[in-house]
Specification:
The chain is α/β, with parallel strands linked by helices. The strands form 3 sheets. It has a 7-stranded mixed beta sheet, with helices on both faces. Strands 1, 2, 3, 6, 7 and 8 form a 6-stranded antiparallel beta sheet that branches. The longest helix has 25 residues. It starts with a helix and ends with a strand.
Length: 288
């Protein structure tokens, strides 16, 4: 067990030490980079680039059709290379403290489903034509597609629990200016590794926020936690509204799941009881 923990932490550490040459957002810890792509936990997307030579091939009667058939072949090769790079990078995605390669090892069917997902990857940006007679194409998959494969149906809030939430009457009695619109957990002063489905605990390791607080569909489509790097990021208001409850994260031995003070955990529970912020996944973590 100890060896497995060490290996997982080493893999997570390595994710933060790889460099990526063509992304402009190098300082953001919500974006994990590799040689050919990046994992963006804030925007919930995984992007990889593929490259191919633009070769001049003899076509038909010996004429050269670089712009036509050769270009199409080169684009197909670049897309194939990008898909393979996506396979490799997705294996490094942090799900819940376990990276995807660990989940694949325990269930080979997951790998088949991921390959099917990658076959429908969409093009990100324009095709790049390079001076060394090469072209590059970036392909992307959304984390919602990956979550649909990985998130099981057990342990989540049932959909019928959302039909008539008890907090609606309480919320209507509170002036709009005093309603808590979401939860912001400031983790900029601690070491935190972003993940697809992290949890939040109090100082007694009692669960404050996890799968039982939201439905599977919201976990898949919205993601239980959003990431940003300052309160000025455009994702903040979209995720947690204009009047969020602001809480500091506490340092703990777990680099993936977050810890908050017991007193702050009580505030989060109260906000959920009155305004339903957890079931709506209105939770955001600020990263360095």
């Amino acid at each position: 067990m100890l060896n497995k923990i060490v290996i997982t932490k080493l893999a997570s550490f390595l994710l933060f030490t790889i460099t990526f040459s063509f992304s402009a957002d190098g300082s953001r810890s919500s974006v994990i980079r590799s040689e050919n792509g990046f994992i963006d936990y804030a925007n919930r997307v995984i992007v990889c680039r593929g490259t191919a030579d633009i070769n001049q091939r003899d076509i038909g009667d010996g004429s050269l059709d670089v712009i036509g058939t050769n270009l199409r072949l080169s684009k197909a090769e670049a897309r194939s290379d990008a898909r393979q790079n996506l396979v490799d990078l997705i294996k490094l995605v942090n799900f819940d403290g376990r990276i995807i390669s660990e989940l694949i090892d325990s269930d080979r069917l997951i790998e088949n489903k991921i390959e099917t997902l990658i076959s429908s990857a969409f093009q990100q940006g324009e095709i790049e034509y390079q001076e060394d007679n090469q072209l590059s194409i970036a392909l992307a998959v959304k984390m919602s597609g990956l979550a649909e494969i990985l998130v099981d149906a057990k342990g989540y809030l049932k959909e019928d629990m959302l039909a008539q939430p008890s907090y609606l009457m309480t919320r209507s009695a509170v002036p709009k200016s005093k309603r808590v619109s979401g939860i912001v957990i400031d983790a900029r002063n601690i070491y935190h590794i972003p993940a697809m489905v992290p949890k939040v605990f109090n100082e007694d390791y009692t669960l404050v926020y996890g799968p039982r607080h939201y439905t599977r569909s919201r976990s898949v489509n919205r993601g239980p936690i959003g990431y940003a790097h300052s309160m000025d990021d455009k994702t903040v208001v979209r995720r947690v509204g204009e009047n969020p409850l602001y809480i500091d994260a506490k340092s703990n031995a777990d680099d993936v799941n977050l810890m908050v003070a017991n007193s702050d955990a009580s505030k989060i529970r109260e906000a959920e009881e009155k305004f339903g912020v957890l079931r709506d996944c209105k939770v955001l973590v600020l990263l360095q």
